[in-house]
Amino acid sequence: MLYLLCMLVFLLAACRPATSESRPTIISASELEAFADSFFPARMEEYHIPGVVFVFVQDRQVILAKGYGYADLAQGLPVSPKTSVMRIGSISKSFVATAVMQLVERGKLDLHTDINQYLTTFQLEDTFPSPVTLAHLLTHTAGFEDPLYFSQTDPTLVQPLGSYLATSIPARKDPVGEVFRYSNHGYALAAFVVEEVSGIPFDEYVSENIFKPLAMYQSRYLVAPPVPEDLATGYFYSEGEQIAQPVDYDNDYPGGSIISTAEDMSHFLLAQLADGCYQEACILQAATLAGMHQRRANTPYQEQNMTYGFVEGFQSGERLIGHSGAIRGFGNILDLLPEHHAGYFISFNEECYQTSACEIISSFRQELVQVFFSE
Length: 375
What we know:
Blueprint: H1 29-47, E1 51-58, E2 61-72, E3 77-78, E4 86-87, H2 92-105, H3 134-138, H4 161-168, H5 184-198, H6 202-211, E5 220-221, E6 235-238, E7 241-244, E8 258-260, H7 262-273, E9 277-278, E10 281-282, H8 286-293, E11 297-298, E12 305-306, E13 311-315, E14 318-327, E15 330-337, E16 342-348, H9 359-373
Antiparallel strand pairs: 1-2, 1-16, 2-3, 4-8, 5-8, 6-7, 9-10, 11-12, 12-13, 13-14, 14-15, 15-16
């Protein structure tokens, strides 16, 4: 079945560069909860969203984690930040980039080396003189065409990642580094390089090297059954009715198929904001993480740029780096506000692209910054 999975445009308005003289704003739990309790129920009704999970972190701790609405309408099952498993879509790409940076840090990968040097089962064609590198893949500047995204509800049709990529890599349309073109295949290829170099399937690599040290015990790539009992039901609102959506699977899974809870995602947020560490475990060194968060490439969208694995944008002068994600029946956003040592994750179980549900993301960002961070 044809299905779209891609990055949401940041939709940032009233943009202006943040000043280096700004001081961190500390948000109290009570004020944040009052804001969230007002914002989410109203917007959920407006955009026909059954359930939302929300977590906000700052200064190495969770300030608020809360659920609104239902994970399953038929069962009347409420959403919980601790137990409701959500499909995070293209936020998965931030985990791909983290995995790549881990192997760069360990000296096993180089961001600027021709990836053909790491591929043992197939090679990219030399369409242009300059080779494709991991830096290009992580910033969507490898020059690949971006074909329509396919997924299927039958997991037995999913091929091994290497077998799929060997016959499905899109044509190289432009020289590297010249054109930003969002590419799920590009991130799948970066993940396969990790698989080749590490010697284990990419989903296993992420489980052992990111999920496990960050105590993300309910997180994994959904590449095959069984489906977790606590997986929220995704919905598609049409003509006054919420239609439950089936679980689907895809061949180039690394860039979009992680399932997780809000509580687990708070651990990833905290590590991204605390020099790569959560509690006693570190997944990246501070210098590596800082390099990952730096601006690396421009996009065609105003005031939006690529880092390795994140999108940089500005909302009313505040710099955010994050990633959004939409997959059948779900929409998501993860944002970091580095200057305030803060970040948040929102996931909701409503079809995001074929309905208006995606608009909750830009509405939340705009109102949060206006209420808490505007002078």
